[in-house]
User: What shape does this take?
Amino acid sequence: MLSLQRRLAAFAAARDWQPYHTPKNLAAALSVEASELVEIFQWLTPEESARVMEDPGTAHRVTDEVADVLAYLLQFCEVLGVDALAALSEKIDRNERRFPIPESKRPGRHSLE
Assistant: This one.
């Protein structure tokens, strides 16, 4: 992931885009790209949305939007010095404490006990 962040930073630097890559602008761009991803699914039924990758044209649009979302998220993290993977790991840890597995779902438990 770090190599992709460096590649994105080099791409922006070669085009003198750094003045525009502020946290505010990158957050806004991230939101726009996420909205473009949502737009693909907007009027699909749940069943249609589950099959969206079966159509090559739609699959290409989805992967492009996913790439755009990830690119802006990585650039946002780079500008603010956020380690995205560490942040995610810490969030999962907090969620595991916040939402413990119900006793009935824990390994080794049988529903007929």
Q: What stands out?
A: Helices lie at 2-14, 23-41, 46-50, 56-80, 84-98. The chain has a mean pLDDT of 93.
